[in-house]
Design brief:
mainly alpha
Amino acid sequence: MPVLALILGIFSGILLGLTGGGGSIVTIPIFIYLLHYSYHSATTVSLIVVGSSALIGAYLKRKDIEYLTGGFFVVCGIVLTPLGILGSRYFSPHLLMLSIAVLMVIVGVVMLKGGSGSETDRKNFFKIAIVAGVTGALTGLFGVGGGFLIVPGLILFAGLSPKKAVSTSLFVIFLISLVTLTQKLGSSSIPWGVTLIFLCAMIIGMVVGSLVSKKIKERSVKKIFAIFVLILGVIQIIINII
């Protein structure tokens, strides 16, 4: 299991560093289906490893972070995080996983049909606040960092280029994960041995993904993100239906 955690951790980190999202929607299924964590342990551990990796990624990409926009996103997001945590107690893990998979497919399709992703000065703070609130609620509900919503939200409504959206997303993921984790920690048991191996591996993958992302074109980053989220969403739907 330690070797498997090492390999999967590096893979998850590369995806997060490359796309600015997808960390938790990859790690949660990994923890549940491959490392055999309970749902609640998986979501808590996911916040730990994804939040920590996002912090490293945000530092590496700090020159491309839009701190004002990211800070606004965080403030709006954490307001609804407690509501999501409360709601998670009333839904089955199976339903939660299926719901997040459907949402991933929708986001992937919207991103593929979106514009070119070039940076603009136009910002719709009302829509940013809505996306941020939904992200915060979903972070509490599903235990995901929300990068698969944050990145398209920043591109479509904050006018950020894909690379700036990815960098800012990592900054937002770290802060929202940290806030959510303080409210969830202690509610479930954590197998620290495997978790720490996965965390170290994911940080390594994050560094690799961040370095690779600097050599990829803006439009390619957006397309990779959209296709990745769409495919993973479809796979999750199939797994949960079967």
